[in-house]
Amino acid sequence: MRAPDRGFTLIELIVGIVLLAVALTGILGLLVNQAPSAVDPVQQVRAAQLAQRLAGEIQQKSFDEQSDHNGGRYRCGETFNGQFYGDCSCPVGVTCTQKPPSPAITGWQTSQYGPDGEPPPYAYNDVDDFDTAGNWQDASFYTQSGGIIASDEYRNYQVRIAVSPVDFSDGTFKSCASPCSVGKRIDLQIKLPDESVLDFSFYRGNY
Asked: Where are the transmembrane segments (predicted)?
């Protein structure tokens, strides 16, 4: 004689539900713990893209405020055809005396690292204009064009830029006494929304 079909008892159903709940709790806990590490690479990639964008922008500018901004006909610290064009700018906070052009050039003035009065930042015309003097600046400050701020493009990202004079004429990339007419080191830091910081460095020669 065939036994009648038998389903789950109430106790078996309750035990199954409890076991399923325990298993789901463990799986969800694992997923929650993995979520931050999944977001980090995305933020790091965006930070690298921002750094590359800023590096390209900075590298396109003139080497120094005292350099020729129209075609690069002369360089600061250079003597050409008997004309000395004056020393390059002095870093802020460094005792530095700039030698003026000889023979004199009308309108020449001493200058320091940092913005030189240009409407920031799309009108910056030399490398050290981007120096933030040790302060963090919202990334949107650097993504604006013609006064229009793209505030959502890199929301919650911040930027800090330090420019320092270097002499790499002998291949050692050592810091040099100011004013330095050989090169500049640009240290670029990007602060991510999670407060972690990525560091980037590159150099700009006097050309």
From this structure: 7-32
Whole-angstrom CA distances from 28 to 18, 25, 39, 41 are 15, 5, 17, 21
Within-domain flag for 80? yes
Number of domain units in the chain: 1
- pLDDT tens digit string along 73-87? 888 888 888 999 888
Q: Which of 149, 183, 147 has the alpha carbon at shortest distance from 168?
A: 183
Look at residue 154 and tell me if it is in a domain: yes
- Around Cβ 149, how many Cβ atoms within 10 Å? 13
Instruction: Measure the CA–CA gap between 176 and 170, rounded to whole angstroms.
Output: 12
Would residue 174 count as lying in a domain?
yes
Please give the angle made by the CA atoms of 57, 168 and 174, to the nearest 5 degrees.
105
Decide: residue 107, CB within 10 A, 0-12 exposed, 13-18 middle, 19+ buried: exposed
CA distance 68 to 88: 11
Residue 150 reports pLDDT greater than 70: no
Query: In this structure, what DSSP letter does residue 64 have?
Result: -
Does 175 fall in a domain? yes
Q: Say whether 29 sits in a helix, a strand or coil.
A: helix
Return the residue matching tokens 């929650």.
32
pTM of the model: 0.74
8 A C-beta contact, residue 64 and residue 88: yes
Q: By residue range, what is the domain housing residue 110?
A: 39-205
Amino acid identity of 198? L
Structure tokens at 101: 């052009």
